[in-house]
Specification:
The complex is a heterodimer of chains A (504) and B (232). Chain A is an alpha+beta fold and 504 residues long. Chain A contains 20 helices and 15 strands. Chain A has three domains: 174 residues, no CATH class; 183 residues, no CATH class; 83 residues, no CATH class. Chain A has a six-stranded mixed barrel. In chain A, a hairpin with a 5-residue loop joins strand 3 and strand 4. Chain B is globular. Chain B has a single domain, classed as Rossmann fold. The longest helix of chain B is centred in the C-terminal third of the chain and has 16 residues. By secondary structure, chain B is α/β, with parallel strands linked by helices. The chains are: A alpha+beta (504), B alpha/beta (232). Chains A and B meet through helix 1, helix 11 and helix 12 of A and strand 1, strand 2, helix 1, helix 2 and helix 3 of B.
Chain lengths: 504, 232
């Protein structure tokens, strides 16, 4: 089987090399289509599919507060408390508040971004430190130890990636914190935090105005089989309860839960997802159009190969064997186009990253890193395979059809089965059909005779179009000595049929 | 040449009717024909008498409208396409008027083609191909393309391709039709040699001179066998 496949590949390569114009057009069209699909898919992969350093991201939601006429707000501890007390759909919930710190004692003083985070914030996100541990419940209580988690970037920049960083101290705002862990590479929630300290506050004991102030970030993990829509409906119900209980600060305010990934993309309305899907569909459609065009080219070429395919069948090739051969040729073309498309995508992807309008602040290391990874490569390979099958299958089935073999084999020209020449024939036919009636009047009728292999009927000798064509093209002059439009009494079908003969 | 053995080919009451625009044309009517192993039969007749239609049916490239066709004692008239392709590949070697070599394949690859479709191993194929090419005196041209050969040489390669798989019968359709008289004679001599070596050959020709090369000539007229003559 592999020997046959190798033969098909060799023959396919020769066939493609023999028609460089056709091959170039098909390869360029395929490369553009596959390249566009691969590039757009790399964007979809980066923004929607690639795993983030968060566990079961699809089950994480983010709470925003809405009021008509205002941009969405962050959450308040009032809501956090309400969620904790009344929600039935969350498996866990955590909050954090963005902060900035003055980092002192490590070279020049530096302003760094950070956050006060509840210990549940990290467990809810499902993120674990790369080194050390996260905050314990004890450390998160008021009066707990002064401990800190640092980001991978801070660890690299200020501690040189030293693994004995755990236990070292940080001077933040004049307070000494003991480093208890290093977060994984790229993790920087909320915002672009480099350092996290425990929240260490009892929400219930906060003054009401502090509790109702916006500015904290609430993340929650949905229970299994609970949808975002269900949880959102309950959040809205809680918002109505808060409005009734605290009308002085909550009148007109509502809550909305959105998937955390959507929030990370800065896409509160959920448009990015739809836009990317629409874009993907667009380039997918482009690929289908390309497939249709290449399939048409294949079908047109199939006409010139009718005789060769008939011969192969006469020699014992089964239909499936011929389909395999033609599909191998299509797949070869698709692979060349696929490689071209992949190279094109490799060039386009950095451009896409540069013009990417989605500039999320958090997890930028992931969302801004457009690259061709294993998933994109698999996609490109799958698209290439599918493309080869889509544009190759129909012409292959048609080419390997079970119509009569003998008439194709008995076409009485002296060319080899797949030798060139049909292109000139097509040009001549077009020229003849397109010529005005006065020119066609030169067609001469001849009495039936039995010379010239029993052809009889209408002949054109040196039709002006053919003559001009011959004079203008040395290759044609070299190939054809004369042209004959024949009415051939065909032995294989009843009646006569017309066709053009080229005298070589 | 009738050696009295079971006929290699046995046609009984074979008819072929073409239907076009509600018009029936009887290309073959009630053909009875037997060809035995080792025979050299020519089918002759004027244009339109049904020679090529008969050859198409013998070569399993077309099916009869009615009648029975037994090849090596097996009824093959109503086989499926894949079965016909398989039998064509194993039992029948074709020689066409216009050579029908594939221009993009070398001489070697052209001859190898039917063996490839048979699923033969590469080593075995090589042996068969070289043997066939040597037999027609084209071994030195194995790497050439058909376009680099003369018409006569191309037809010799076509004969080698037909021979390579050691088929039960060679079917030749006007094998000299596209050759000048010198090359035509050379091909006819080659067929005679092959026959002398034991090959069974059935050749269609409208040229009475070439028909006489065969041991037996079947004359067709209007789709019927009008004469079945064994050479003296």
């Amino acid at each position: 089987m592999f020997g046959g496949l190798w033969q098909d590949l060799r023959y396919g390569t020769r066939t493609l090399l023999k028609s460089p114009g056709y091959t170039a057009i098909a390869v360029v069209a395929l490369a553009l289509s596959i390249g566009a699909n691969t590039a757009i898919f790399s964007a979809v992969n980066t923004l929607l599919l690639r795993p983030l350093p968060l566990k079961d991201l699809d089950r994480l939601v983010y709470s925003i507060t809405l009021r008509e006429g205002f941009d969405p707000f962050g959450a308040s501890f009032l809501e956090f408390d309400a969620y904790q007390q009344r929600n039935h759909f969350f498996a866990s919930i955590g909050a954090a508040k963005q902060r900035s710190f003055n980092l002192i004692g490590r070279g020049e003083p530096e302003r760094i971004r950070g956050a006060s985070a509840m210990s549940d914030y990290f467990t809810t996100l499902g993120v674990k430190p790369l080194l050390g541990r996260s905050f314990s419940g004890q450390e998160d209580r008021p009066g707990g130890a002064a401990v800190a988690l640092i980001s991978y970037g801070l660890w690299q920049n200020h501690f040189g990636g030293n693994t004995s960083v755990v236990g070292e101290t940080l001077n933040l705002e004049g307070r000494i914190y003991t480093i208890i862990g290093v977060m994984p590479r790229g993790f920087d929630l909320p915002a672009a935090a480099d350092v996290w300290v425990p929240f260490q506050m009892n929400i219930g004991s906060l003054p009401f105005m502090d509790r109702s102030a916006f500015g904290c970030e609430i993340v929650a993990r949905l229970r299994p089989r609970i949808t975002v829509e269900q949880a959102d409906a309950e959040a809205k119900s809680i918002a109505r309860q808060l409005e009734a209980e605290f009308p002085q600060v909550r009148r007109g305010w509502s809550l909305k839960l959105i998937p955390l990934r959507q929030q990370l993309l800065g896409d509160l309305a959920g448009r990015v997802n739809k836009a990317l899907v629409a874009l993907m569909c667009g380039v997918g459609f482009l690929l289908l159009i390309c497939c249709a065009n290449v399939a048409n080219l294949q079908l047109a070429r199939g006409i010139t190969r009718t005789r060769e395919l008939a011969l192969r069948r006469a020699l014992g090739a089964s239909r499936s064997r011929l389909i395999r051969q033609l599909l191998t040729e299509s797949m070869l073309l698709a692979w060349i186009g696929g490689v071209g498309g992949f190279l094109l995508a490799h060039w386009i992807v950095p451009l896409l990253a540069a013009i990417n309008p989605i500039q999320g602040i958090s997890l930028a290391a992931f969302f801004h890193d457009f690259k061709i990874d294993t998933r994109v490569l698999s996609f490109a390979l799958s698209v290439t395979l599918a493309t080869g099958v889509i544009f190759g299958l129909l012409p292959a089935i048609k080419g390997a059809g079970e119509n009569e073999v003998m008439p194709s084999l008995r076409q009485s020209d002296q060319h080899s089965a797949s030798a060139p020449g049909h292109g000139w024939l097509n040009v001549l036919i077009i020229a003849e059909i397109a010529s005005p009636p006065t020119r066609r009047s030169r067609i001469q009728t001849r009495s039936p005779s039995h010379d010239e292999n029993d052809f009889a009927g209408i002949e054109i000798f040196r039709a002006p179009e053919a003559d001009r064509f011959c004079r203008s093209s040395p290759r044609a002059r070299e190939k054809f000595a004369g042209y004959t439009l024949c009415r051939h009494d065909d032995e294989h079908s009843t009646g006569a049929r017309d066709h053009l003969r080229l005298r070589l | 040449m009738n050696n009295g053995s079971t006929p290699l080919i046995h046609l009984e009451n074979v008819t072929k009717v073409f239907l076009t625009d509600e018009v029936e044309t009887h290309a073959l009517s009630g053909i009875h024909l037997e060809i035995r192993t080792g025979e050299y039969v020519s089918i002759a007749g004027p244009s339109g008498c049904g020679k090529s239609t008969l050859l198409s049916i013998l070569g399993l490239l077309d099916t009869a409208s009615d009648g029975s066709y037994c090849l090596k004692g097996t009824e093959v008239a109503n086989l499926s396409f894949p079965d016909r392709a398989r039998i064509r590949n194993r039992e029948i070697g074709f020689i066409f008027q216009s050579f029908n070599l594939i221009g993009d394949l070398t001489v070697y690859e052209n001859v190898e083609l039917p063996l490839t479709y048979r699923g033969m191993a590469a080593g075995e194929r090589k042996h068969f191909v070289i043997e066939a090419l040597e037999r027609v005196g084209m071994g030195h041209r194995a790497k050439h393309l058909p376009s680099q050969l003369s018409g006569g040489q191309q037809q010799r390669v076509a004969v080698a391709r037909a021979l390579a798989g050691k088929p039960a019968i060679l079917l030749a359709d006007e094998p000299t039709g596209n050759l000048d008289s010198r090359n035509g004679e050379a091909v006819m001599d080659l067929l005679k040699e092959l026959h002398a070596g034991g090959a069974t050959i059935c050749m269609v020709t409208h040229d009475e001179r070439f028909a006489q090369h065969a041991d037996r000539t079947v004359h067709l007229f209007d789709g019927r066998v009008v004469e079945d003559r064994i050479a003296a």
